[in-house]
From TrEMBL, chain A:
Residues 21-254 form the ABC transporter domain. Pfam families: ABC_tran (PF00005). Keywords: ATP-binding, Nucleotide-binding, Transport. The gene is ssuB_3. It comes from Streptosporangium carneum. InterPro entries: AAA+_ATPase (IPR003593), ABC_transporter-like_ATP-bd (IPR003439), ABC_transporter-like_CS (IPR017871), ABC_transporter_ATP-bind (IPR050166), P-loop_NTPase (IPR027417). It comes from the Bacteria. This is ABC transporter. GO terms for molecular function: ATP binding; ATP hydrolysis activity. Residues 270-294 have a biased composition (Low complexity). Residues 270-309 are annotated as: Disordered.
TrEMBL record, chain B:
This is Nitrate ABC transporter permease. Residues 57-237 form the ABC transmembrane type-1 domain. Coiled coil: none annotated. It is a multi-pass membrane protein. PANTHER family: ALIPHATIC SULFONATES TRANSPORT PERMEASE PROTEIN SSUC-RELATED, ALKANE SULFONATE ABC TRANSPORTER-RELATED, MEMBRANE SUBUNIT.
Automatic annotation (TrEMBL), chain C:
Belongs to the bacterial solute-binding protein SsuA/TauA family. Its main location: periplasm. It comes from the Bacteria. It is found in: Periplasm. The keyword Lipoprotein does not apply. Residues 1-28 form the signal peptide. Residues 63-272 form the SsuA/THI5-like domain. InterPro entries: SsuA/THI5. Pfam families: NMT1. GO terms for cellular component: periplasmic space. This is SsuA/THI5-like domain-containing protein. It comes from Streptosporangium carneum. Gene3D superfamilies: Periplasmic binding protein-like II.
Amino acid sequence: MTAVSDPAHPARAAAGAPPLLRVEGLAKTYRTPAGTHDAVGDVTFDVHSGEIVSIVGPSGAGKTTVLRVLAGLLAPTAGRVLISGVPVDGPPPGVALVFQDYSRSLLPWLSVLGNVTLPLRSARVPKAEAAERALRALASVGLEGKERLRPRELSGGMQQRVAIARALAYQPRLLLMDEPFASVDAQTRMDLEDLVLPLREQYGMTIVTVTHDIDEAVYLSDRVVVLSAPPSAVAAVVEVALPAPRSQTTTKEDPRFGRLRHRVLDLVRRPGAPANTTDTTDTTDAANAAETGDFAIPASPVTERTPQR
Amino acid sequence: MTRRLAAPAWQAVLPVALVLAYQLAASAARDPFFPTLPAIWRAFVTSWTGPGFGRDVAPSLIDLAAGYLLGVLSGLAGGIALGLARRVRAALLPLISFALTLPPVALLPLFLMLLGVGPQMQIGVIAFSVFFTVLINTSEGLRSADPALADLTAVYRIGGLRRLLVVQLPAAAPYILAAMRTCLSIAVLVMVVSEMVGASQGIGAQTLLAQQSFAYEQMWAGMLLLAVLGCLLNALFTLAERAVLRRAGLLPATFAGA
Amino acid sequence: MKSVFLRPAFAVAALVAVLASSACSASASGPAGSAAETGSSPGAAGQLVVGVVPSLELGLLKVAEAKGFLADAGVELKITNVDSGPNVVTGVVAGQYDLGYTAYAPPLLAVAQGQPLKLVSNTSTVGEYGTNGGVLVRKDSGIASFKDLAGKKIGTNAPRSLLSLTVPASIRHAGGDPSGIQLVPLPFAQIGKAVHDGQVDAGVILEPFQTKALAEFGDLVNLGDSYRDVLPVGSPGALYFTSAATATAKADTIRRFKEALAKTADYANAHLDEVKAAGGPLAGLSAEQAAKLPLGPFKPRIQAGELDTLTTLMVEFAWLKAKPDLSGFVG
């Protein structure tokens, strides 16, 4: 068990609210014909209601494994996941997942509207209400008037927006995203990033996203959970106290953004190395002392890894 | 691109060449077993059009439709059950593989005993010939679906009939339709052969009668009707299949199983 | 790109294969019998290959062997069982068999369609006690005579077997209207059960199936022998025949076979029990069953006119459009 700082957001920790999501000592070992593979060693962190938290880490750090366990798609080998205090032992209600590969997660035989309303209809939302929620969600991702089209008639970025709209219309307590913007071009990626931020305000959702893009993690998140190389543990939790509203231009030009980016990148490349920059200058809470008091060093030896692309 | 053009070209050239070759050979040989095309065509018109259509062709087609639909629907139902229940499938697979190898035509006497004389026997044999292929391909189609779809339905808690009808069956549609297409041709053959026992009307019964009467041009007319029927049904099915799959944004599958 | 037309082609090929056992083999010879003329006939010198539909009177051949009539004539027979008369004809036309043995309907139909077949020898004739077949009905069916079969569904072994001709003829003979009957082809082995189960109202049957069916299903009764009902005593019953080509290519062997058979017939007519004893096993009958069955006297030579009753019936029941010219066949 690594010593991890209490990651609770100071304001919320002060309010004494229990975390929406609690991950305790999560471990996952895969059995393969070639032997066992310890993908996740020991991962512990909390996410509070309303937060956006990114999970980053070197390649093969089991980021997606962690997310699949959170979604209840995968049973952990050890440890547990609690959502609103309830242990997860299967896909819990009120949790949506935006899959990495939109081309496989959208049903080509359904219209855009059919794809977005499918989970709602399954949750016995009346037809008219489901359609109304779906159309609102589609409008909020900029897809007005596209509801009658088939997914294949849309560009990749638009298809991923449909997948996001499906998750939004579902009105989840917790929105999980698995490298949601990995399959789209750079411009679309920025558009989608800027789409997510106001949506959080609009829908009041808690978001956990897995990404290999450090810029994206820092740009979107309130906190970044950095995983070590496998068997992965939480190498650090970095608070991102950048002001809202964030924007691709002003936020990314902010020197604090650069420092955070640098630090997370260092952590990803050498999860054991002490960070050479400090940040979160605007947080002064006691809880934050733990954060600045710094990053846990995993028990296992840390090997130099090639940075992600 | 060239392959695309070549296939229909061959589809047209080869049959035309064969037909021409046959006509040349038949008129040269003057063998009663090889009647000329005009003779076959005359027999075709007298046997299968007019009253012959109502007496023989229509009952055959009705049996074909009933047996085919029965086989497809029961195969679908069984295939769904097997595709969703992994253990049952594992337990029954050897039995099904065995059943797939049974030629329905060889089982005609058994069906005659079980179902008796009458259209129900023909319908039963046709349904049998369709059932196992549709069964195995439906369960295979369900099982081989993209795991991403299972994740999707799990996360969004899409279950029961909605999951089956809206997600799983459409995903398995290429398999199921390919099996149905293959079975259509088999069903036409089984229909004709099954009518050679225990039936006094129908395309098969008339063709058997022609063979026993040494009326070869009528026998050939029977085979011609079978060929026309098979080609027509297959072509129509293929067009419908492609249209359905294109609308669903899927690609036709190659035939699996069997 | 998958061919739209491939699958049906397979289906047609399969049907051709189904029919191959019968008609298609005729293709082997091309214009009837040319293969035999070139000397590629199936039997060796003095040997004749005979395709037969198994029956009690095949005992005649066994007697011919046992009494040395065949050996004296220098003829050796190779006997092959065939499932139906039409297939015997097809085998003979194709040169697969030198001789065929069956009842008269298939060869007469083939002759009418232009196949040059030759009668080698008649065998039995319709005797006082008929042949060895009957028509089964259920006792509770209300069918008491052939007349009552009008409009009924009747199981028969093949649509163009002689029995399928004599049954409607019997109905007409008894004063009924045969036009409404429905003949359903069924294997002999299943006819008893089909009648018992009510799937057909009546069933045409031959021994040994008749005895078995009557023993198995107590509710069945034999209505009578339609054959005997329609055809006068002494009518030709079955025959050995060959193709024109084989008749030429093996003229001498066939002539010697004919003579040996005539001698055997003389002997057999005086010893019908010996024929039954020898033929019983061939027809799947026990010695006891065989001994009880009627077997008409053998009469090797017949005149074309003696087939007139049959060909008239064939025309009357629309099997043929016109009576065939049998001069080449019998002559």
